[in-house]
Design brief:
Layout lengths: L5 H4 L2 E4 L1 H4 L10 H6 L1 H7 L3 E4 L27 H13 L3 E7 L8 H8 L11 E2 L19 E4 L4 E4 L14 H17 L3 E5 L19 H8 L9 H10 L9 H13 L5 E4 L16 E2 L2 H5 L5 H14 L7 E3 L8 H4 L6 H14 L3 E5 L20 H13 L4 H11 L39 H5 L5 H14 L1 H5 L1 E5 L6 E7 L4 E7 L5 E3 L8 E6 L13 E3 L4 E6 L1
Parallel strand pairs: 1-2, 1-11, 2-3, 3-7, 7-8, 8-9, 10-11
Antiparallel strand pairs: 4-6, 5-6, 12-13, 13-14, 14-18, 15-17, 16-18
Helix pairs in contact: 14-18, 15-16
The chain binds 1-O-alpha-D-glucopyranosyl-D-fructose (TEU) and calcium ion.
The site of calcium ion has 6 residues, from loops.
Length: 567
């Protein structure tokens, strides 16, 4: 424990600013709301916040299209409000990391507006401009959000490159001034006292400068038509290979590791700041201490279900892949993914499975990232009205299914609602009150609120119910904080053949802890050969007699979460 830094011990909590708390009552989440909810977060027991983009943005991608790297979106507050939020968090012992989008800016960022002006504008090469080929785009590359990766700009008769939306032109990271400008922004926030960054979409920062055509056998549309599965949600190898072929020259290109080494040195000029990359690629850890501090273990959440066999396999592969000295980082949900409650539920035992999902995050080796709303069991909300969609990617799927695949509108809507990301971004449900208590009764929130706020999925109701998911989160977060082995311990899986429960040890020099997560509806009497005299209960999701237990006959109830210290 002594040798661990704050971010290795911390539990992170992602705030999606637009939907978290509306402090000034205009239907949009903001920094005033976040300030008011700091006590709520402190009581919940998290240690650090990852704030999704809070910068000025025209919101084509909900803030991931930044128009000013050193500003605050008008509707969220001012730089002064941000300062008060940061200070308030720090006073409560909560760290704050920001979202840093390196790959692209908004098409309305002054840098891009300048770059567009003329072919010889000094900022022209801050972005990636090319002549067309045979009356079309420069090559056959595609955007991950649909359609070609090139947008024609009549002003200068050239195409610019965008990996994401056409409203998100890619920066040219081979241009030294781009680096300088973004590094200045990084320093700006570090000087202000922020504790680090989550680095967005880092695989896409460089592309092959020769612009070779990709050699895939299918277009993304054809792949989607065949499978209806998006790239990051498939475990089908053949399919993944096709997707990888499509984007082969657009992602994970040379240059990236050098860039991260530079960013790491910059960060290391400051005390104790952290970089976490939105990637599962462990090569970004560098040698383990010279690039990113952490990269997410996304494979875990992309498995079909959280079965003990899958978790063991994931941990075996992941921990083996990490370089020495590298620290793992686990998550099951974020603003791009389905809600944990929906994703890992089975429709029957959802409440129990949600508790197991949290227990898994808080007991695996590595830093856990939770997503706002998870703690009250917020679920995916599938909109039934396409005009309510705000995620342009979801909207693209609607058109794809309706216009290209020729599906009935209702079916297209359903697919788009399921694939799109609005479903996990709806306003936080604070109370059983109009709009879930998010905004005043007369004010329509920016995204529809899930009506299940009236069925107990809200903070106010759960606060007063000792058996609620919220209170379960609070208890388990406290147990983690008070149990050094759960934070620092080595991981050792036990009973490797079990299909129903996941049992493992977390061990430090001072403490040995046994964790059993029973993912199934059956009770077990388990015998562990652990050279231990007894087991002292630290936590159980079920009522258990408080006396010491015998490691050779541990009773585990259906869906039980059992954590005990070995004597
Ligand atoms: O996501 C990057 C990314 O790889 C996306 O393709 C992501 O997997 C997709 O949204 C899955 O549903 C980041 C942000 O997290 C995302 O919100 C942004 O839209 C994207 O970058 C562009 O900035
Ligand atoms: Ca507001």
């Amino acid at each position: 424990m002594k040798n661990l830094t704050w971010w290795q011990k911390a539990v992170f909590y992602q705030i999606y600013p637009r939907s978290f708390a509306d402090g000034n009552g205009d239907g949009i989440g903001d920094l005033y709301g976040m300030l008011e909810k700091l006590d709520y977060l402190a009581e919940l027991g998290i240690d650090a916040i990852w704030l999704s983009p809070h910068y000025p943005s025209p919101l084509f991608d909900c803030g991931y299209d930044i128009a000013d790297y050193t500003g605050v979106a008008l509707e969220y507050g001012t730089l002064d409000t941000f300062g008060r939020f940061l200070e308030g968090a720090h006073e409560r012992g909560i760290r704050v990391i920001l979202d840093l989008v390196l790959n692209h800016t908004s098409h309305l960022h002054p840098w891009f507006l300048a770059s567009r002006m003329s072919r010889d504008h000094p900022r022209r090469d801050w972005y990636i401009w090319r002549d067309g080929r045979d009356g079309g785009p420069p090559n056959n590359w595609v955007s991950t959000f649909g359609g070609p990766a090139w947008e024609y700009d009549a002003l200068t008769g050239q195409y610019y490159y965008h990996f994401f939306l056409k409203e998100q032109p890619d920066l040219n990271w081979r241009h030294p001034e781009v680096k300088e400008a973004v590094f200045a922004a990084i320093r700006f926030w570090l000087d202000l006292g922020v504790d680090g960054f989550r680095l967005d979409a880092i695989d896409t920062i460089f592309e092959d400068p020769e612009l070779p055509d990709h050699q895939a056998d299918y277009s993304p549309e054809e792949l989607l038509r065949q499978t209806e599965t998006v790239r990051w949600e498939t475990t089908n190898k053949a399919l993944l290979e096709q997707w990888e072929k499509i984007f082969h020259y657009q992602v994970r290109q040379p240059g990236i590791h050098e860039l991260f080494k530079e960013i790491r040195s910059l960060i290391d000029e400051y005390d104790d700041r952290v970089l976490v990359g939105e990637t599962d690629d462990v090569s970004y850890y560098g040698e383990g201490d010279d690039e990113l501090h952490m990269a997410f273990n996304f494979p875990l959440m992309r498995g079909e279900r959280l079965t003990p066999a899958w978790i063991r396999q994931n941990q075996r592969e992941r921990l083996a892949a990490l370089p020495e000295r590298a620290w793992p980082c686990n998550t099951l949900g974020n603003h791009d993914a389905p809600r944990v409650y929906s994703r890992f539920g089975d429709g029957v035992h959802d409440a129990a499975l949600a508790r197991l999902s949290l227990a898994l995050m808080l007991t695996l080796r590595g830093t856990p990232f939770l997503y706002n709303g998870e703690e009250i069991g917020m679920t995916d909300y599938l909109f039934e009205d396409v005009t309510r969609f705000r995620d342009l990617w979801g909207l693209w799927h609607y058109h794809l299914h309706r216009d290209l695949f020729g599906k009935p509108a209702a079916k297209a809507l359903r697919s788009a609602a399921e694939t799109g990301r609005d479903k996990c971004r709806t306003p936080f449900q604070w109370a059983n009150a109009p709009h879930g208590g998010f905004s005043p009764p007369a004010i329509e929130p920016w995204l529809p609120v899930n009506p299940n706020y009236a069925e107990g999925v809200n903070v106010a109701d759960q606060e007063t119910d000792p058996g609620s998911l919220l209170n379960f989160y609070r208890r388990l977060l406290r147990v983690r904080r008070e149990t050094p082995a759960l934070i620092a311990g080595e991981y050792q899986p036990l009973h490797l053949e079990s299909e129903e429960y996941f049992a493992f040890l977390r061990t430090t020099e001072e403490q040995r802890v046994l964790v059993v997560l029973n993912f199934f509806e059956r009770a077990h009497t388990l015998s562990f050969d652990l050279e231990a005299a007894g087991l002292g209960l630290l936590f159980s999701s079920h009522l258990r007699p408080p006396h010491e237990e015998d490691p050779s006959a541990v009773e585990i109830a259906p869906f039980e979460i059992y954590i005990a210290a070995l004597w």
